[in-house]
Amino acid sequence: MNEKTLHVTSESANAGTVSHALHNMKISEEVVYCPIDLSCGYLPKDFSDKELCFAVASQSYAVTTQERIELFDELKKFVSTDYSVYDKIIVWHGWSSRDLMTLYLMSVLIERNLYHIDIRDCSTFMSRMSSTPFPGMGHVSSDSIQEMIPLAKPVSAAEKQKYQKQWHKWIHSKHPYRLSDPQTGVIKGFPENFMDKTIYESAKTNPSIIILTSRVWKEYLHLSISPSNICARILELSQKGRQKITL
Q1: Dihedrals φ, ψ of 6, to 5°?
Q2: Measured in whole angstroms, how far is the alpha carbon of residue 77 from the centre of its chain?
Q3: What residue ranges in the chain does DSSP mark as E strands?
Q4: Is 209 exposed, middle or buried, given 0-12, 13-18 or 19+ CB atoms closer than 10 A?
Q5: According to DSSP H, which parts of 81-127 are helical?
Q6: CA 194, 41, 94 angle in degrees (round to 5)?
Q7: CB 179 within 8 Å of CB 191
Q8: pLDDT (tens digit, 9 = 90+) per residue, 217-237?
Q9: Distance (Å, rounded) from C-alpha 188 to C-alpha 50?
């Protein structure tokens, strides 16, 4: 009987890259992704509907009621899946906070057969990443995925316990942003207003939402915060009357 394997990534783009590589290798295995951005917003304290709703409500890209309903359904399915039917659940991760937070979450959800692929274990890939010693999955191409497939290894009991502690640490943190430095690989918490000064200063010369988002994104490029989260903060400040912008 063939082994049943599930691949897990932190976002849809990474899932697409893994799926494409597996297809090219003629490997028929499932690929899923965490439907919410675990680097920003509210983290559910448990997996009750109430807590999942809080997490969905904090996601900047879920704006309409229908989008939030659909996102809740996706998140509910992700955390309530019966993962015991798989012989291997492989979490793909680099060192972006979104990748690592997904690994931490899966260590809580999965009782057994948890594996991971740390992209830094691929020497040929890392030789091309000399300027970014702690890359994220967003740096990985389909060709690199094919090189990394054999690197899957079990998450040891000690590793799993460490990852679970990290998850519980962050769900009790008051910081709404959890971002990692690609030069150190360390995740740090940031307050809600950590971008505000840059937003205010940039808006003095051009209040366009597109230009503002681009300028702030470049300022914090080292933290790999997504443009959608930056845009959401700018719009929030505008709605509160603290920042005038041009849509």
Answers
A1: -120, 130
A2: 17
A3: 5-9, 30-33, 88-93, 114-118, 153-154, 177-180, 187-190
A4: middle
A5: 97-109, 123-127
A6: 90
A7: no
A8: 999 988 889 898 999 899 888
A9: 27
pTM given for the model: 0.93
For residue 168, give the amino acid letter.
H
pLDDT, tens digit (0-9, with 9 covering 90-100), for 153-163: 999 999 999 99
Query: How far, in Å, CA of 139 to CA of 154, rounded?
Result: 23
Burial of 142 from C-beta contacts in 10 A (0-12 / 13-18 / 19+): middle
Token digits for 10?
């932190």
At 117 the three-state DSSP class reads strand
| Angle between helical axes of 209-219 and 227-239 (0-180°, round to 10) | 120
- Calculate the CA 140 to chain-centre distance: 14
